[in-house]
Structure formats: C-alpha cells, structure tokens
Design a protein that fits this description.
Helix 1 packs across helix 7, helix 4 packs parallel to helix 5 and helix 6 crosses helix 10. It is built from 12 helices and 13 strands. It is an alpha/beta fold and 358 residues long. It starts with a strand and ends with a helix. It has a single domain, classed as NAD(P)-binding Rossmann-like Domain (Rossmann fold). The strands form 4 sheets. A 7-stranded parallel β-sheet has the order 3-2-1-4-5-6-11, with helices on both faces. Strands 7-10 form a two-stranded parallel sheet. The structure holds nicotinamide-adenine-dinucleotide. The site of nicotinamide-adenine-dinucleotide has 30 residues, from helix 1, helix 4 and strand 5.
Length: 358
C-alpha cells in the first residue's frame, strides 16, 4: 500500500530518521514530509543519505508553535500522520520537566487540533479495502504503564501509572490522542513500545552511552545496582511494526510493541563489553570500566511487554535473535565516528559533565 502523503513529526530524531529510511525503502508513501524542531536531539545529518530523494521534504517546525503549524497545514494536505516528535529522555525530564509538558502534551494537542481542522470534511473511515483514507499514528512508550514486579507483562489493558515526568507527559499525550478519536472521530491508533536501540540513537541513551564510553575508555555508568529490567527492541523491528499499524492497524485501537528480550541493565552493559572486547581487543576487558553511580530518582524496576495483539492481528514478530542487533549497533557507532564526535562537543558535553561529573 502506498499512501498519497505521509507526515512524519520528529523525523530527524532516532526512531524518526530510521522510520524515514524504512518508509522510503518500502515505498510507504508517494510523498513524505518531515517536520522537526531540530532540538538538541534532532539532527539533519541523520537524513543526509536520503536528502536528495524527490519524495522527501523537510521543514523545520516546532509543534508547540500553533500559528506556524496552522499555516503549514493550511498549505499542504496530508493523508497519514505518524507522530514521533517528543522530548524523550527520562533523566532530562527529571532535571527539567517543563519542556516535556510543553512538547509532549501541549505540542501533541496543537498537532491534533491542526490535523482535526485539516481533515474535517475529508474523513471516510470505510474507504478502499476498508482502510480509512486518513490515519494518525501516535507513537508512545511502555513507560506510561509504570513499573512491574518480578513477573507479568504490560498488555493494552494495563492501567496507566506513569512514574517519571517523561512518562507522565507521554501518558497525557496518549490520553489526548485517544480522546480525539472518541470525541471527534479522528482516526487514531496508539502504539506503546519498549526500549529501542540502533543507529542514530542520541549518545545520552544507555546503549550508545556505553558503546561510546568503551570506545573512549571512559567509565561505564550503571545506575544503582544495575538490576533494572528492560525489554529491548531493535529499531528496525519497531519501524516495521509502525508501518504495519499504518497500513493494517485497527482505528481506535492501542497496540503494544516489544522485543520479548528482557534483560537487566547490568547484563546488557556486560554484553556490550563482550562485543567491544572482540572489536577492540586492546581495551579488553571493557567491563573493568563499569562504575555504579547513584540511582535515578524514582527509577522504574522492570518493564515487560506482551505484544501478542500486534503479533496475532497483524503477524508482526521481532526478528532479532541473540546479540546480533547489538553487534550491528556497535559496528554502526564504530563506523560513524564523525556523527557522534560532532554531538559529543557543545551542549551534550555540558549535559554529560552535569550528569556524570566528568
Ligand atoms: N527511544 C525509545 O526507546 C522509545 C521507545 C518507545 C517510544 N518512543 C517514542 O518514540 C518517539 C521518538 O523517540 P526517539 O527516541 O526517536 O526520540 P529522539 O529524542 O531521538 O527524537 C525526538 C525528535 O523530536 C524532535 N522534537 C522535539 N521537540 C519537538 C517539537 N517541539 N517540535 C518538533 N519536533 C520536536 C527532536 O528534534 C527530535 O528530532 C517519542 O515520542 C518517544 O516517546 C521512544
């Protein structure tokens, strides 16, 4: 299925840029427009390999800027929207929650309003092959569900209990998206995904942080006892799931997406160290660099996702077994030194010093 015109918000960020590549490669839309405010986390270099593709247009736009958003929507018509723009780092939300409320809650509200106005009159939920002719896919996180005990997994019915300001702001945006479907009939699907990793992930997130610190022989900071459990998913598996939801997901539904690859943070850090020992034997053993640091306030202990709904309804499966995807990710950071060296200076350098005192 090829959509007439797909809008991707946050397309210069980690998952957004990976999704742009996926959408172009799979011919998901005849035209693709990316909007992104290019905050510290957005990087146009992420899209440089496809910048010349005639199907792709980029516009720098902040979703909290309503007048600009309204004139943007007045000038162009989109049939499908995938909303990825967000403030996304839990640690930053603890240090400065306001930006999270502004972008994730208020920004999502402005976007939903702009889309609702733009689509009023154009909506037909039963069009070609029973697919809606318009669709808004709101991309969210499993962190909205809070923390699990030693057993169990989040389902689509799990009540929301967000613990960090990041998770609370994402929960607020999910509620708005759901309400716009319920009240105004806006064709919305919501996805809640577990932790992603892969190329183009900003160095503040755990996996690139550990890879880059290994490459620079710097301490590998592990929060608390390192026994927090996460369910890691390779970003390309997430992108496939998102494309499937756009083409075949049921309107008004929520879908959980997860890798069914639970592991503790410490186990994950050790796995990266083992890969680095092979790739950079001169620095081995890299796990000598592991340094336990004060735990993140309110740190959720365990997340696990039950993704049987998207698996049974749409046939989606995570494809990455073992640590192959982790190794691919390490290779990407080794091969793309220019990309991350540019980021490690400037704003990120100051952030890192504040966070880890080095
Ligand atoms: N990374 C994960 O593990 C993960 C897991 C599940 C869900 N998600 C969700 O997926 C989405 C993308 O996450 P990511 O990891 O790619 O984040 P990211 O921080 O790498 O990218 C976010 C992008 O949004 C842009 N942006 C921020 N504020 C904006 C604004 N006001 N207007 C326009 N653009 C703005 C940034 O410039 C950046 O390009 C987020 O909604 C996040 O909550 C992420």
């Amino acid at each position: 299925m090829t959509f007439p015109h797909l809008l991707i918000t946050g397309g210069a960020g980690f998952i957004g840029s990976n999704f742009v590549y996926h959408a172009l490669k799979s011919n998901l839309a005849r035209r693709i427009t990316v909007i992104d405010a290019l905050t510290y986390a957005g990087n146009l270099e992420n899209l440089s390999a496809v910048a010349a593709d005639p199907r792709l247009t980029f516009q720098r736009l902040d979703i909290t800027d309503r007048p600009t958003l309204d004139s943007f929507f007045a000038s162009t018509e989109f049939t499908h929207v995938i909303h990825l723009a967000a403030e996304s780092h839990v640690d930053r939300s603890i240090a400065g929650p306001e930006a999270f409320v502004r972008t994730n809650v208020l920004g999502t509200f402005h976007l939903l309003e702009a889309v609702r106005k733009s689509w009023s009159g154009a909506l037909s939920l039963q069009s070609v092959a029973d697919r809606p002719n318009r669709l808004f896919l709101h991309v969210s996180t499993d962190e909205v569900f809070g923390s699990l005990g030693a057993t169990g997994a989040f389902t689509e019915e799990t009540p929301y209990r967000p613990n960090s300001p990041y998770a609370a702001s994402k929960a607020g945006s999910d509620h708005l998206a759901r309400a716009y479907h319920h009240t105004y009939g806006l064709p919305v699907i919501i996805s809640n995904c577990s932790n992603n990793f892969g190329p183009f992930q900003f160095p503040e997130k755990l996996i690139p942080l550990i890879i880059l610190n290994c490459l620079q022989s710097k301490p590998l900071p592990v929060y608390g006892d390192g026994q927090q459990v996460r369910d890691w998913l390779f970003v390309s598996d997430h992108c496939r799931a998102l494309a499937l939801l756009l083409t075949a997901g049921r309107v008004g539904e929520c879908y959980n997406i997860g890798g069914s690859r639970e592991r503790t943070n410490l186990d994950l850090v050790r796995a990266i160290c083992r890969i680095m020992d092979q790739k950079r034997p001169a620095g081995a053993p890299h796990d000598r660099l592991i340094t336990f640091v004060a735990d993140r306030p309110g740190h959720d202990r365990r997340y696990a996702i039950n993704s049987s709904k998207i698996q049974s309804e749409l046939g989606w499966q995570p494809t990455q077994a073992g640590d192959r995807a982790l190794e691919e990710t390490v290779d990407w950071y080794i091969e793309n030194r220019n990309w991350w060296e540019g980021i490690l200076s400037g704003e990120y350098h100051e952030y890192y010093a504040r966070q880890y005192g080095a």
